[in-house]
Amino acid sequence: MKKKSILWLLCILASQYTIAAKPVANTPVNQMDYESIHSGQIQVNAIVFNSPCNWSWQGAEHILLTKCGAGAEFVGVNTTPATVQFYDIQRGHFFPLHFLRLIDGNNKIRIPWAANKYRLLRLEVGYE
């Protein structure tokens, strides 16, 4: 009787160390089912390069950008998609980002109303 009890105790202890984390085997998921559940859209905004434009001052309300129009990639549409953003250097504040299309030649950009003449502004133009 004592040997039988010791044998059962050893079997129970051994089985405690061999229990699997999950009793169900991992089976491969059907690819079609997996794709339909995990499909969606990802929006990517990539800037190919940043380039300073030539500019001239057009009074208190506008800046005139020159030589940053359509490049060889956008000749067919005659415009270049770009983002324009002003940065107030003294306050460390970014003004809202504007999406626009630059044409060949001169492009007039309106200075934000909140940026008065006493602030130093940086203009960032990113071609997409």
Automatic annotation (TrEMBL):
Protein name stated in the entry: Fimbrial protein
Keyword terms, alphabetized: Signal
Signal sequence coordinates: 1-20
Lineage top rank: taxon: Bacteria
